[in-house]
Amino acid sequence: MKTTLLDRIGYLHELGKQLQTDADFKTQIATAHIRNPFFVKEFVDQAVDGIVYQMLQKDLLLEWTSRYPLLQKDRTTKTIGIIMAGNIPLVGFHDFLCAYISGNNIRIKLSSKDETLFPALLEILFRIDTEASKSIKLVMKLEGFDAVIATGSNTSHNYFEYYFSKYPRLLRKNRNSVAVLNGNETDEELNLLADDIFMYFGLGCRNVSSLMIPNGYDVTRLFPHFENYNWFHDHNKYMNNYDYQRSILLLNRTEHLADDKIMLQQSEQISGPMSVLYYSYYENHEMLKAKLTENKDKLQCAVMRHELAQAIGFSSFIHFGTTQKPGLNDYADQIDTLLFVLEL
User: Fold this and answer.
1) CATH homologous superfamily for 5-174?
2) pTM value > 0.85
3) What's the CA gap between 268 and 205, in Å, rounded?
């Protein structure tokens, strides 16, 4: 029997409740770091909580779907292929959600970096929506699809463009996020900035990888606000990256600042290696707005205070501490994924 939109909203809400209580799923969370050392329990818990509280609450789902009249109309069922990234836990969930809520068939190719959490999530959904296993399949190779959503590196993006050139497609490549400071930030805001930088070890496209700061700003004042992440010292994989990047900077005599878990390097680049945070200076608001405009196609998020965003006329900013808390309307690359699948 074909499910209705209200059915699917109900199933998703129930999924959110069971993700918090299901014993098998909790086991997968506790052991995810064995397959992927960067999937530590603290960060997997945060990813799951984000999905549960930002995406699977019934009132949020009802409000979100009410913006799309096409959801209420009869449409031909399509098969959506989804190639998921694996840089952070369950990073492809929102793409899946858009395909599922639209009532389409789904074929999912998982990343080798995240092969256990999503299947465990689907097992719970299949118990709730007993028809879903007929329309949702995990596959090793995408075949028999009508459209594709794929997320990967800049290199894989070129491959995707070639391989999927005959199909409707939504393809994403590397993006990063910046934080713009003006010196008026409170201690609490700078503590929250640490979350934007360090959560998921900085591996997400929504993680802040670069700072834009006013001339004369003492960037070392940030180090005390990073202390909540001192536990990174005990993470071998991260610290191996830190030691490697520090060695390169020292061998090349590249000027930088460092504490024992992150290095700050002056650079106009947006995307840097793990454990390195870039920073660049701006002289005035005009220069700052020009820098943001110049890099708009590289940016996923721009974090700043409301007063600064108003001063430079920049509307698409977000608040400190929210980069890794995307909601239903926070579409990757600012492309409406749900509208994409509805208009096929």
Assistant:
1) Aldehyde Dehydrogenase; Chain A, domain 1 (3.40.605.10)
2) yes
3) 18
